[in-house]
Amino acid sequence: MADVKTAAARPSAPQAHAGKPKNSNNFMTNLLVVVACVIVGFIVWKFVLGSTSNFSDGEMRLKAKNAMGTMFQGGFVVPILLATLLTLVSFIAERFITVFKAKGKVDGGEFVRKVQYHLANKNIDAAIAECDKQAGSVGNVMRQGLVKYREMTNNNELSTDQKLMNIQKEVEEATALELPMLEKNLVFLSTIASCATLLGLFGTVMGMIRAFSAMNQAGAPDAASLAGGISEALINTALGISTSFLAIVFYNFFTTIIDGITFGIDESGFTLTQSFAANYK
């Protein structure tokens, strides 16, 4: 199976901030989402795919007359795979909203260049205003660093090296608060990428067992049971592979964007320290 990308190395931060969740109810919220998807997946399988209108023999549900009836005949693994797909779609939507909001309203490279220009002119307030316009993770981290930057310009007690360390520490602490929000729930995508294929394989095995059981009967094999078993195997395979494919694609898509945001954060910290060192020796 295709490998999923790993996120770039993150800067260290004080223990008091590292990994600190912004929302203590995050686990319960995620659990409720998963449970809701399981319930909806079963309802869709039982009452939508299993509707008698999808079968030519009505309540018997042995002769499907369309694709939905065929999916229903995939067996008990189908609602599990549907729940997995719904869970994936839910977290993809959540990550879209969060990650694209974190990108901000202004491109990271352009934003950093504007801040560099204002700092070169020693206009810290204008640089902070640019952070408010950016309104993303890079802007949030840069703003925290600029507040400390302005404080250090008015400090006559510390040496330049000590001031630079304080600015760098502030940037690292702000970064440690932003990154968990960016990476939250990506574990669901990476887990589904692996588990969906295995669930599909499990359904495939169950379908093949059913097919070979039909062939093993005395006399002429039960053609209907044989066809049903093969159909069950293929349906589960298709659902598992397609779900895993989507999970891998979107996991890599989001981690690529997050890596870009992380690079912007690193660049912002470097910009602050270099600017201070050049303008306030």
Mean pLDDT: 85
Shape: rod-shaped
Q: Measured on Cα atoms, how large is the radius of gyration?
A: 27 Å
The helix/strand order is HHHHHHHHH
Task: Give the percentage of residues in beta strands.
Answer: under 5%
- Unreliable stretches: 1-22
SS element count, helices: 9
How many structural domains?
A: 2
Distance between the termini: 54 Å
Largest sheet: none
The class by helix and strand makeup works out as mainly alpha
Task: Give me a quick take on this structure.
The chain starts with 25 loop residues before the first helix and ends with a helix. The chain is an all-alpha fold and 281 residues long.
Give a description of the structure.
- Helix content is 74%, strand content 0%.
- It is an all-alpha fold.
- It has two domains: 26-103 and 188-268, no CATH class; 108-181 and 271-279, no CATH class.
- α4 (108-120) packs parallel to α9.
Short descriptors:
disordered N terminus; 281 residues; mainly alpha; 2 domains; rod-shaped
Map the helices and strands.
Elements (H helix, E strand, L loop, with lengths): L25 H24 L17 H6 L4 H27 L4 H13 L3 H11 L2 H17 L6 H24 L2 H30 L7 H57 L2
Helix pairs in contact: 1-3, 3-8, 3-9, 4-5, 4-9, 5-6, 6-7, 6-9, 7-9, 8-9
